[in-house]
Specification:
CATH architecture of one domain: Up-down Bundle
Low-confidence stretches: 186-196
Number of strands: 0
CATH topology of one domain: de novo design (two linked rop proteins)
CATH class of one domain: Mainly Alpha
Radius of gyration: 24 Å
Number of helices: 7
CATH superfamily of one domain: LemA-like domain
Helix content: over 70%
Distance between the termini: 90 Å
Shape: rod-shaped
Strand content: under 5%
C-alpha cells in the first residue's frame, strides 16, 4: 500500500512538472512570436518610407542614379521575402531575411551620405521629415530587435534546460536562431578615420 502511494505521488509530481514545463515553453514561444511581429512591423515601416525618400532625393540628385538604384533594389529584395512568424523557425530563410535587411540598411546609409552633398536637399522640409522618420524607425527597429533577441534567449534557455529539454523534444520544439549581425568580425575592428 505504501509503495503505491509513493508511486502515485511521484506520478502526480512528474505530471505537474511536465504540464508546467509545457506551459512555460508555450509562453516563451508566444513571446518570441510577438516580439518577432514587432520587428517585422518596424522593418515594414522602414520599407514604406524608402520610396518617398528615394523620390525626394531623385529630384535633387538625379545623377546619383547608382545609389538610388541600389536602395530601390535592396527594398525590392526585402519586399520579396515572405516575412511570416514561421520565418523564425527556418534558419536558412531567417538568414536571407537578415541579409536583405542589412543590405537595405547599408544602401540607405549610402543614400543619406550622398544627401550631405546637396545643401538644397538637406534644407528641403519633406526630406528632413522623412530623414527624421527614418532615424526614429531605425531606433524602433533596434528596440524591437533587442526585445526579440531577449525573447529568443529566454525561449532557448527554456528548451535547452532540464526538464524543459525533455518536454521540448517530446513536442517537437527546438532552439530558435538569434538575430545576429552578419559582419561581427568587422565590427570588432576600429574604424579608420582619415581627415585628408
Amino acid at each position: 500500500m505504501k509503495t503505491w502511494v509513493i508511486i502515485v505521488v511521484l506520478a502526480v509530481v512528474c505530471l505537474g512538472a511536465a504540464i508546467l514545463g509545457f506551459n512555460r515553453i508555450q509562453s516563451s514561444d508566444e513571446q518570441v512570436k510577438a516580439d518577432w511581429s514587432e520587428v517585422l512591423n518596424q522593418f515594414q515601416r522602414r520599407a514604406d518610407l524608402v520610396p518617398n525618400l528615394v523620390n525626394v532625393v531623385k529630384g535633387y540628385a538625379a545623377h546619383e542614379k547608382e545609389i538610388l538604384t541600389q536602395v530601390t533594389e535592396a527594398r525590392a529584395k526585402v519586399g520579396a521575402i515572405q516575412a511570416t512568424p514561421e520565418l523564425i523557425n527556418n534558419p536558412e530563410a531567417f538568414a536571407k531575411f537578415a541579409a536583405a535587411q542589412q543590405e537595405l540598411s547599408s544602401s540607405l546609409g549610402r543614400l543619406l551620405a550622398v544627401a550631405e552633398n546637396y545643401p538644397q536637399l538637406k534644407a528641403d522640409g519633406v526630406f528632413r521629415d522623412l530623414q527624421a522618420q527614418l532615424e526614429g524607425t531605425e531606433n524602433r527597429i533596434a528596440v524591437a530587435r533587442n526585445r526579440f533577441i531577449e525573447a529568443v534567449k529566454n525561449y532557448n534557455i527554456t528548451v535547452r534546460s532540464f526538464p524543459g529539454n525533455i518536454i521540448a523534444r517530446m513536442f517537437g520544439y527546438s532552439v530558435k536562431p538569434p538575430f545576429a549581425v552578419e559582419n561581427e568580425k568587422d565590427l570588432a575592428k576600429p574604424p579608420i578615420v582619415d581627415f585628408k
